[in-house]
Design a protein that fits this description.
The chain is of the alpha/beta class and 317 residues long. 38% of the residues are buried. 49% of the residues lie in helices and 10% in strands. A hairpin with a 5-residue loop joins strand 3 and strand 4.
Length: 317
């Protein structure tokens, strides 16, 4: 049986993985899905990444470190695609359980592939589990998108506000440095530890050198495109098109039906993964210069090592 998925977008958080997925999905022969519907803890309907490898990692490692997720999440989330397999977790050897889960995951990916040649899936937390991924899907191709941490912090700040998990207000030093310590540094360290190969690019390159960057990802996947096709992929995966498609989904699609049904029951439905156009350098509108300098200083050595190892040049631009 052929291996599905054929590739993964493995990170990083708030760095354009949804955008990269949409762009690649616009390729004539490449399918890429980042989000599937699921039910939230209070019955609200949401859309999110599949979190396959970081969920299995909670069993492999026996803990929830490195943004691993409990297998019990699959009882309700992600369209309950794995719900019937969750009770098997403690009834068979771990290797056998993983094989059962991998078969289901491969079938899901195969279904998302449609008529295209290859299929990929995107979940930012996969960057923490690269070796584990290789143990389940040897030699699978991986793409990682990096982004200026200051813009990532700004994006995370507004994401939490939109999800009602943070009060509106300025970006504080504590908030910014906590994100650096808890997310950015561990991601960089994960890339430094990994001895396998993956294709790294940056949000800034996808913004400023889009055609060239898209062509690079397509060559890596083995399906190169001409500049005109790369430009068309960028247009189809643009913020404008993503926003349009999300709106259409809410109005006419499966989520829209859920929303209507829940509202009849007077259940509060939150916006799911609201999109916010990520502008390169947007942090300058929300962050004090002194804080920006502190962030850059705290990461300068580690970031340089990552960029050298992944052949990204000297900066994000």
């Amino acid at each position: 049986m052929s291996v599905r998925p054929d590739f993964l977008i493995v990170g990083m958080q708030r760095s354009g993985t949804l955008w990269a997925s949409a762009v690649l999905n616009a390729h004539p022969q490449v399918a890429c899905f980042p989000n599937l519907p699921f039910e939230g803890p209070e019955g609200e309907q949401r859309i999110g990444e599949l979190h396959f490898f970081n969920t299995l990692a909670s069993i492999e490692r026996g803990n929830l470190d490195n943004f691993a997720r409990p297998i019990s999440d699959y009882l309700t989330k992600y369209g309950k695609r794995f719900a019937d397999l969750v009770p098997l977790a403690g009834t068979m050897p771990k290797k056998e359980f993983f094989a059962t889960m991998v078969k289901r995951y491969s079938d899901i990916c195969e279904g998302e592939r449609g008529s295209k040649k290859i299929v990929g899936e995107s979940t930012p937390a996969y960057v923490f589990h690269l070796d584990f991924i290789d143990s389940l899907y040897p030699n699978i191709k991986k793409i990682c998108v990096l982004r200026d941490p200051k813009d990532r912090i700004t994006s995370w700040h507004f994401s939490l506000i939109s999800k009602r998990r943070k009060e509106e207000g300025p970006i504080t030093e504590d908030f910014a440095m906590d994100y650096i310590r808890e997310r950015v540094v561990p991601e960089y360290e994960a890339l430094m530890r990994y001895q396998g190969t993956l294709h790294c690019t940056t949000y800034e390159k996808l913004t400023n050198k889009g055609v060239e960057t898209v062509q690079g990802m397509c060559r890596y996947l083995g399906y190169p495109v001409e500049p005109a096709v790369a430009q068309e992929m960028l247009e189809k995966g643009s913020f404008k098109e993503l926003t349009k498609k999300q709106g259409e989904t809410r109005e006419r699609g499966e989520e829209g039906q859920w929303r209507e049904e829940l509202q009849k029951k007077e259940v509060k439905v939150y916006d799911v993964n609201p999109l916010r156009k990520g502008i390169v350098g947007d942090w300058q509108n929300y962050m004090e210069p002194a804080l920006a300098e502190k962030i850059d200083t705290s990461l300068v050595s580690l970031q340089k090592e990552v960029f050298q190892k992944q052949h990204l040049g000297a900066s994000y631009g």
